[in-house]
Amino acid sequence: MNIKSLTFFLLCFVTTQSVTTQNPSQPSWLSDAVVYQIYPSSFQDSDGNGIGDIPGIISRLEYIKSIGVTAIWINPIFVSGWKDGGYDVIDFYKVDPRFGTNSDLVELVSKAHVLGLKVILDLVAGHSSDQNKWFLQSKEADPHLRYSDYYIWPSFKPEVENSTSLEGKQDYAQLMNSFNNIVNKFVKSDAPRGPYYIKNFFDSQPALNFGFANPDPDHPWEQAVDAPGPMAMRREIKNIMQFWMDKDVDGFRVDMAASLVKNDFDKSATIKLWKDDLAKWFKENYPENLLIAEWFNPAQSIESGFNVDFFCHDGMYNYSTLFFYGRGGRYGTPAVEPYFDKAGEGGLKTWYDLYTYQYEAVKGKGYVSMPSGNHDFNRLSTGVRSTPDQLKVAMTFFFTMPGVPFIFYGDEIGLKQNPNAKPVEGSFGRAGARIPMLWDSSENAGFSTASTDKLYIAQDPDPNRMTVEKSEADPNSLLNYVRTLIKLREEYKMIGADADWKLLNTFEKPYPMVYERTLNDKKCIVVLNPSDKEFTAEIPNQGVTPEVIGGSYKKAAYKPSKSVDRITISPVSAIIYNF
User: Fold this and answer.
1) 330: pLDDT confidence band, cut at 50, 70 and 90?
2) Residue-by-residue DSSP string for 88-118
3) Measured between alpha carbons, how far is 406 from 76 in angstroms, rounded to an integer?
4) How many CA atoms lie within 13 A of 563 on its CB side?
5) pTM of the prediction?
6) Taking 50 as the threshold, does the pLDDT of residue 197 lie above it?
7) CA distances (Å), 331 to each of 85, 176, 257, 314, in order?
8) pLDDT higher than threshold 60 for residue 511
9) CATH class of the domain comprising 37-118+385-491
């Protein structure tokens, strides 16, 4: 073999050894990504009005980078009516003055890029504010103006069908998108255009018109998905994306991405719309940029062309049995004790069945991601689950599972849910998760120089509350543990986004949770015990004694034998073994 042949052989060998299951059509940086979600009103106030803003985010970029994340996702920052925390958009092309200017956003993107951080924006594709100029024009009697068909104007409200006739014919996800659900979204209007319009969420959020699956000829407002109005709406969404992509933004998280086509029971029409048009166009023009779905059904959203979808709090496919107090695993099922709780009374089967279906459906195509939290549900640190040791166990889970990790701002320091936070701007019960960040020991924990009563949402009132300043000074803090986990994930690709995953313990013995991550011929095993009891797990013999590469534990013992290996782990502990 000559030198050139030998070199080629060695290159092929190295390449083969480093192959992962990442889809080559994904952005090249996504496999190693960790995303930090920022609710902008609550992150950092720079001008003393009690509300966070873009210059405030810019001032904290060095801190964000220090966590080890590679991207930030910012909740809506566009001009809004603020009846749903920014998700009622008045102008999709302009930053809301409360946050700054378009130039401020461009500066944020530029400075983030210097630090190696991507910037993802929130795109509300399914609806707008009722104060949006599109909707105001659409209300006019003339049906042939530019924006007339951007919205849906029923001429009458059909009678609601007997819901009992649907029992046994559709699952919950389908029922929620059934004809009855659409009828329940009819909003009475005094507009010259018509007596009703269709909303998407609140009455102040009229649905944008992407057409109906199988339009009913008796309902003239039900336009086909390829009718002029819905096609114009598609062009507008592309214009919005292009406007911000051309300012070097790195992608979008699409709010309610499954809501576009109406009466689309199985989502086939919505999938086709994204797959054959919107997502296809996006990937062709911005192949290194990211599309994240808020769909809560990765099997559908990844097929639609999205790169990532969430498996967290909504719909059938969620992790409620792992983390939520007072909620069941499926719609209509009794509440169960969460798995991640000291009581140790949780189970794994409901979550496992739902998760593995989604994981297998998208493996090698896109990512199922389980975020540490977000703006729509209770924080990880809530109620009795609030001590650093408990949170470290949960964070070990989030950072050693497949998919792209998402950290909700403040979760890295254990920012606590404030159950007494008063609703603001349509947050209702979600206000307690959207509380201001805690930075230091100064007034308002460094979030704002405004008087305390002027803060956007009340902060955690605990006088011993954890701050970034305290966390930085403590080598054993949750923040420093999260940093360690991110570094481990970078070094050991077996616990990264693309490695295989398999649960090793049984449903009959749910504690501790034991799973293996494998990539090529390398393996890690993760053991999680969120309970306050010591447990021993038995797993198939691995043939070797592993090394400990990470974790948070008081005691742990790994004892190999001929038939099975036994792992004993202390209460509220996590450990990562490398084989």
Assistant:
1) low
2) SEEEEEEE-TTT--HHHHHHHHHHHHHTT-E
3) 17
4) 1
5) 0.93
6) yes
7) 26, 11, 20, 9
8) yes
9) alpha beta
pLDDT recorded at residue 331: 59
The yes or no reply on domain 500-578 and CATH 2.60.40.1180 is yes
Identical fold, 37-118+385-491 and 500-578: no
Spatial separation of the C-alpha atoms in residues 52 and 444, rounded to whole Å: 13
Report the C-alpha gap between 305 and 284 in whole angstroms.
11
Cα–Cα distances in angstroms (integers) from residue 301 to residues 174, 240, 257, 433, 511, in the given order: 15, 21, 8, 26, 32
Cα–Cα distances in angstroms (integers) from residue 193 to residues 139, 142, 157, 164, 223, in the given order: 5, 7, 15, 34, 16
Return the domain boundaries, the chain: 37-118+385-491, 500-578
> What's the token pair of residue 252?
């979008």
Residue 234's region, left for phi above 0, alpha for psi from -120 to 50, else beta, is: alpha
Q: Letter for the amino acid at 279?
A: A
The one-character DSSP state at 258 is G
Three-state secondary structure string covering 345-356: CCCCHHHHHHHH
Ordered alpha helix ranges (H), 248-372: 268-273, 279-285, 298-303, 320-323, 349-362
Pairing of the two strands 535-540 and 547-552: unpaired
Q: At 5, which amino acid appears?
A: S
Q: Contact 419/458 with Cβ under 8 angstroms?
A: no
In sequence order, the 6+-apart residues with CB closer than 8 A to the CB of 380 are 323, 372, 373, 391, 394, 408, 411
